[in-house]
Write a structure and sequence with these properties.
Blueprint (H helix, E strand, L loop, with lengths): L5 H15 L11 H8 L3 H13 L3 E4 L3 E4 L3
Antiparallel strand pairs: 1-2
Helix pairs in contact: 1-3, 2-3
């Protein structure tokens, strides 16, 4: 079985932080630049992971402000 793409691994990591409560509803996610640095990935990888979590309803973006964990 092929390895998961980087964006999927990042999405899994962030999802587990949300599900465990480490990132609580209303918490702001780190910036794209911070996530790139922490995980050694490109901005495109971060954007794909964020898009996936947004489609799952786990996070929501506020234009010009940031990305936040959605209320359950």
């Amino acid at each position: 079985m092929p390895a998961k793409p980087k964006w999927e691994r990042l999405a899994d990591h962030l999802r587990s932080q949300i599900e465990s409560g480490e990132l609580a509803p209303g918490d702001k996610l780190p910036s794209t630049a911070e996530l790139c640095r922490e995980h050694g990935v490109s901005a495109i990888v971060v954007r794909q992971a964020i898009f996936k979590l947004r489609t799952e309803g786990l996070i929501e973006g506020v234009q010009g402000v940031g990305v936040f964990v959605a209320e359950r």
